[in-house]
Amino acid sequence: MSNEQIDKAPEAIEMKSKQHPKLQEFLFSLKRFLKNPLSIIGLTIIISFALIAVFAPIIAPPYKTDNPYQIPHKGWAQEPQPPSVENPFGTMPEQYDIFYGMVWGTRNAFKIGFSIVFFNLIIGLALGTIAGYFGGIVDEIIMRIVDLFYALPFLVVAMALVVALGRGLQSIIIVMVVLGWRQYARIIRSEILVLRDKDYIQAARASGASHLRVIFSHILPNSIYSVLIVASMSVGTAILTAAALSFLGLGSGVGYADWGQIVSTCRNYIVGPPGNRLAYWFLVFIPGFVISLFVLGWNLLGDAVRDVFDPKMRRK
Amino acid sequence: MMKETLIDIRSLKKYYPVKGGIFRKHIADVKAVDDIDLQIHKGECLGLVGESGCGKTTLGKTLLNIHKATEGRIYFDQDKNEVEELEKLIAAENPDNLQKINKLRTKMDMTQYSRKAISELRRRMQIVFQDPSHSLDPRMLVKKIVAEPLVCQKLLGAEEIQVRLQQIMETVGLSKQHYNRYPHEFSGGQRQRIAVARALTTHPDLILMDEPTSALDVSVQSQILNLLKDLQKQFNLTYIFVTHHLLVVKFISDRIAVMYLGKIVEIGKTKAVFENAKHPYTKALLSAIPVPDPETEKERIILEGDVPNPIDPPNGCRFHPRCSYAVDICKKDLPLMENVDGDHSVACHRWKEIF
Question: Would you say the ipTM is above 0.90?
Fold first, then answer.
């Protein structure tokens, strides 16, 4: 039996193969990631926000340690005050400190984004995988349920659920999980439908691999990346939608440190008094800018994740 | 001398339902494998040849229980006498025997096995697919791919698996430095070696070769074929070699079965079939082999038309619409397998007259 290619293995390959291949792949991914300036910008934005969230107690020491998300306020005056030394970002109506709200709101933004995407992923992945892999009547039932959820009007259901569950951030998260998992189920199912009849899946089945083993060691490693890409892109969108729902008044009450809530509290002062229409610019501009920056960061990061993980873009 | 039979197939059918209408009613069947009887002996290589879509791969995969058989019996390594007895019972069609038949079938017939019994059988039958770039998981390391059947079967401990892995990889010509790599880092020939290694790890009795060389370069094909031949001797393997490449079959097979539209039309020793083909279809296939000599004047038999639709195969002989020897009887009656001599059988009404 002749075997020339194998004997000719160059030394360079031998050097390379000393590292574990998993590590090698990771380093390759990292290198690809760091090559793209946009991904570095995205990462910098997200890391800065993460630092703000972690060090919130130092940046803006809470006056009420049992409930740090309550924004401190001085007096009950309705007129918002422009940025000053005491209130770097100005104050909202009833003199709530915007700076404090923005800092502690960062924590809430992360909480909202992560928990929504995390629960969506779990529910969507589980149902989509079962539907795609087993097919037939199981697929039919699960996907018709997904269709049902797609038929629900978002705002109407959101308001109904919030009324039922009570106002607050946790209600917004629940609403967005209930109405968000459906897209992950569809994506993973379509990926699995492509994979299911591949030869290596049949080979695994012919080797006696159980369904669970096939799913976890062949199907998911080959199909999960598209879902992860969508997930990383939708962290930003989730925060945007949560802010919108807060703005509509479905979030926690006045004075709670949540970006959407801050904008909501200020909505009567978006336009200034006659003669000075831009008097309260800081009310709209600061939270709006911060939310945009945060979402932009996640989108850039999502793009970078796609470039790194998508097998079609990866080795270009 | 009678050879021992490893697999005995009796009137095996594999139909794929065609559904149509608003209510997805069952309206027809694609008869991919239609009533096939076949015996495969221990240690032989049986070549399955035929046009694309004639059901050769389906037959192979149904044998391995990758696809569930619609009807028929598959006996894997069962006592010959017991099989004959059971077949007699089934042929008698006596309703009183039904219970007894069912009991015997769950014990002997692979199509009736429980899930557990089948997963034990998996150790003894393996498959090598056509294109190794599709049959190896792109996100798995080679050592994991090759060891997977062992891990799934839970036959060996972790250390024993490592020992077995090393043995097998050496046998197929891969060395230690290849373990920690992904399939995309290999050439086509090496990938097929990996696929072969995976099929060998559990020391199976039977390997289904589903066109294992047709996705490879010609130069690599011969390497792989030689490897397969060596392995067969070394491990006393039985091969079912599915291919449409007649010269490959001539090189590696002991016997050849020619399929047309879900049926076996001719079966016999490789030499007998190549030199003394009796079925007009086999003749036509053989006449298509190129001869490496420009001087030779060859009689080319060119078949008219296409393979008929397997949903609605022609009555009588499946081949009659394309056969230049067809007469009235071919349009009415399905020809049965008739013995030519020894192992050689053919399903044609007119084989005695025409060749």
Answer: no
